[in-house]
Amino acid sequence: MDNSKRRASTKVPDKICQYGSECYRKNPIHFKEFSHPHLESILTEAPAKNKYRIPDELSMSREVVLDQLKIIEQIYPELVNSNTPPSKYSKNNTSLAVPPASSSSESPAKTSLSKHSPSDGQGKLKNSPIPKPVNAKATGEAGSSTSVSKPQSKSNAVADLFAERRAKMAKLRAEEPKKPESQPSTSGQQARKQSDPPKQQSGVSLKKVIPRNIEDYYPVVAPRGQMAAKLAAAAPYNYFLTTITDAKVTHLEPLSITFQELLDSSLGELECSVQMNFMVDIGWLMGHYFFAGYENRPLLILYGDETPELKMVSAKKPNITAVKVNIATPFGVHHTKMGLYGYTDGSMRVVVSTANLYEDDWHNRTQGLWVSPRLPPMPEDADTGAGDSKTGFRESLISYLNSYKIGHLQPWVARIQKTDFSEVNVFLVASVPGGHLNTPKGPLWGHPRMGYLLGKHSAPIDDTCPLVAQSSSIGSLGPNPQSWVLSEVMASFRRDSAPIGLRRVPAFKMIFPSFSNVRNSHDHLLGGGCLPYMKATHDKQLWLKDYLHQWKSDSRNRTKAVPHIKTYCRWSHRGLYWFLLTSANLSKAAWGVYNKSAKFEAPLRINSYEAGVLFLPKFVIEDNFFPMESKLGQQHPRFPMPYDVPIIPYAPEDTPFFMDYLRG
């Protein structure tokens, strides 16, 4: 539609919705943030209020267009019968300002979040001392997302979620170079047949709004029926990274997986499941369950970030129960990323991850997952205390689930109690909001829990071995290293089983993407949407710059995939002494801080829910360290580090990536 016919409004946003005429949104805030010229032109040409001339070429339903027009008319009433001159639209008006160039060379921008490159229209990045805001979804403790003030109608909400995703995939495929047509293979026909949902349906069917072929819905689709073999080959670590959409080499890597593979039939026939996370796109998640054939299986979702879609999903899909995890303090979030999968044969599986359940986190970001082996049910006559792992994983998991005090979890606690966890070889390290004291079984949560486990089980580590932390966000750490990092985190993370004595504090190193790391990523500056570290916070802890290191992952084909993964570890030339994969960023809210003003025992104050798994060589390969290199004839496979070793410190001109570059 000719945009010149659209009349201007000083309030209409400059940024155009990336879905164009395929947009199915009905959220008022969406129309306050993005312009829709095809709709605004209809309003400006309307002879009177509520008298719209809808062109035949619009591909969506007339009802959706009418609903959208009514929303826009309420927000921008001046568009109707306006006599102001037409506005000018430019597809390049979403430029991002960048700080002065660092040592890295600039590369053309490319994003999956928006096809409009941040440029000046000539392919060159603009430079400006003041960053311009860009709508990018941020995740993590300090993360934020665009909220919706008004829910969609129940009759159309679920359908709209899927229709918009289908439209987006169609748009992306239309922009790709055309490939020669070929005859469909037998295997492809079989895959489409397997993707059909079960015949017996309850609730609201999604058949009418989702295409049959999963390739039309998700950009990376792994072959069906192979996840069990992939998991077996990943032993003894069972540790994966997510595939990277724009790095096709990762699509076939044995240690790269998609979310769809977690629901693969080779792992078992799903009976019920739990998804615990911070951010959940219910349309994205339900699409995966649909294609796996589990659309109507019981699903419990515990989430932290509220959306209208999550609030209404139970009314549309009675098999889904969505519960928001409320936290007393505004400084904490439900940040855990964990899945529980129960199978029809009575077995189950646990997955601990760093990824939120929405598209961006599984697109071009580096994420980590630990997938447990199949955990069979215990014999009915088994002793109630039998069946836990040497790491006490089952007991720790039950304690963690009970901390929610949510009745919906109790059937799962009962099931876990009757499940054999003896094959699990990692420790659960979690955080729970509240004030915590030591227990007869040691500290249960936060960084003291890590210190307790390392002090009890880690092999002696030379003090020259640094602690290497890596996270996607950094909290307020204090005016100097001793404020919290050295006095509390290092005091716990430095521990090992060597006798207590005079020892020096190990070096501390921190991996956090620099501005140049993000600028050169697959999604250019928008890739930093998962790094909610603010300049105002950094300015209060400038000492941290001396400890910062670049993100580099050539060995895993992920240097250009911005890391949302969080890891902590220690290594030397001998190997890796331990490795922690977790949802916990480097922050007091995640790990806890002692209340030093207490008269007696100082309680640990934690604000957020977090969960991770600790790999200790003693329990995984019965050795003192994991090999970090592949050598001929070695007994155990090398540990799959997510980044390159040795790590590279920031250059003097480097700066951390700040969310300010996107928000302005």
TrEMBL record:
The keyword Nucleus applies. It comes from the Eukaryota. The keyword Nucleus applies. Keywords: DNA damage, DNA repair, Exonuclease, Hydrolase, Nuclease, Nucleus. Residues 94-115, 144-155 have a biased composition (Low complexity). PANTHER family: TYROSYL-DNA PHOSPHODIESTERASE 1. This is PBZ-type domain-containing protein. It comes from Aedes albopictus (Asian tiger mosquito).
